[in-house]
């Protein structure tokens, strides 16, 4: 199993390790794989000579949850090494992983496929902001980060002055392009896709921020994700799964999520984040081909449990679908 370990390091920005996995998640996956009768060797790809590690071992398949090291294509780094060495792995391929991490590229694909996504512009610095052609309020995000890194309540801006300041701030901090998109007033939803020969769209999860008034957070920001459940900070969203939606809206949201999964070319597993507007139109914000798998806190297991699955079922489905694909029984 290939992973990046989440660690504390006061010399790094607070959100530096947010994409990486906790010891609890890593141990849960190891336990699930071991219960299925597999022998598991683990590698922290941030601390190991991965070429040497993989060359010295006979490996049937890699269970990949590694986020990579750095750069705009980091999530595809470990799969690229595995492709080079001819070692099969779980999850999406290098292209889809690189594409999904780039929010603007993903949105262009969505637009081409007639999948609703908020109107957006991409900026390399504050000087271009005067040319904005979007309707306020807007939300400002680093273009190539996951786990809501760089996103907090101050990223929702209501005028050009605040927009310019936030674009400059994020551009300097993350040294990458900045995505600006129209902020969709409405409900926060996420939808899991799980494959094992057949494709299953899991029950929709709604994240309700009505109990987060003390924190001032009103959408799924980095602080909410990082400190979820901290009552002292007021970061206690309510999770509704299945989300209380009428049948037509539920089917529309699931259809949009599945179309997104297929448009980006994901394999085995993904999670699609959606804002449902007040007129019940689902706008896709992004797709995560490497969703969190913490058995207690992550959104994906919550949705799987609502579908009647156990944690071991999630891990087994991901692994078995990858093995079937390797054997040519599923189209790649």
Can you put this structure into words, describing what you see?
With 332 residues, the protein is an alpha+beta fold. It folds into three domains: 2-100, Rossmann fold; 119-182, ATP-grasp fold, A domain (Dna Ligase, domain 1, 2-Layer Sandwich), CATH 3.30.1490.20; 185-326, D-amino Acid Aminotransferase, Chain A, domain 1 (2-Layer Sandwich), CATH 3.30.470.20. The chain is built from ten helices and twelve strands. Strands 7, 8, 9, 10, 11 and 12 form a six-stranded antiparallel β-sheet that branches. Strand 1, helix 1 (23-35) and strand 2 (43-44) form a beta-alpha-beta unit. Helix 1 packs across helix 10 (311-326). The longest helix has 17 residues, at 247-263. It starts with a strand and ends in a 6-residue tail after the last helix. The model has no long low-confidence stretch (mean pLDDT 93).
């Amino acid at each position: 199993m290939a992973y990046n370990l989440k660690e504390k390091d006061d010399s790094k920005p607070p959100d530096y390790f947010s994409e990486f996995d906790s010891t609890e998640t890593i141990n849960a996956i190891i336990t699930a794989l071991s219960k299925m009768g597999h022998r598991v060797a683990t590698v922290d790809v941030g601390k190991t000579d991965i070429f040497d590690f993989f060359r010295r071992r006979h490996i049937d398949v890699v269970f990949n949850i590694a986020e990579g090291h750095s750069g705009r294509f980091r999530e595809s780094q470990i799969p690229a090494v595995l492709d080079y060495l001819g070692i099969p792995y779980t999850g999406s391929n290098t292209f889809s992983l690189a594409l999904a991490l780039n929010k603007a590229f993903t949105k262009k694909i969505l637009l081409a496929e007639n999948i609703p996504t908020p109107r957006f512009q991409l900026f390399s610095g504050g000087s271009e902001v005067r040319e904005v052609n979007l309707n306020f309020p807007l939300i400002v995000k680093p273009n190539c980060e996951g786990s809501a890194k760089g996103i907090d309540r101050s990223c929702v801006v209501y005028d050009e002055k605040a927009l310019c300041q936030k674009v400059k701030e994020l551009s300097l901090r993350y040294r990458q392009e900045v995505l600006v998109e129209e902020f969709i007033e409405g409900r926060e939803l996420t939808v899991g896709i799980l494959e094992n020969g057949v494709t299953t769209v899991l029950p929709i999860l709604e994240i309700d921020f009505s109990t987060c008034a003390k924190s001032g957070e009103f959408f799924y920001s980095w602080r909410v994700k990082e400190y979820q459940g901290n009552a002292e900070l007021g970061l206690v969203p309510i999770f509704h799964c299945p989300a209380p939606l009428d049948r037509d809206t539920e089917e529309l949201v699931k259809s949009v999520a599945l179309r997104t999964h297929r448009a980006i070319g994901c394999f085995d597993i993904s999670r699609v984040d959606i804002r449902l507007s007040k007129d019940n139109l689902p706008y896709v914000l992004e797709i995560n081909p490497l969703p969190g798998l913490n058995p207690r806190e992550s959104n994906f297991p919550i949705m799987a449990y609502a579908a009647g699955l156990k944690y071991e079922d999630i891990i087994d489905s991901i692994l078995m679908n990858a093995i079937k694909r390797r054997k040519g029984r599923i189209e790649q």
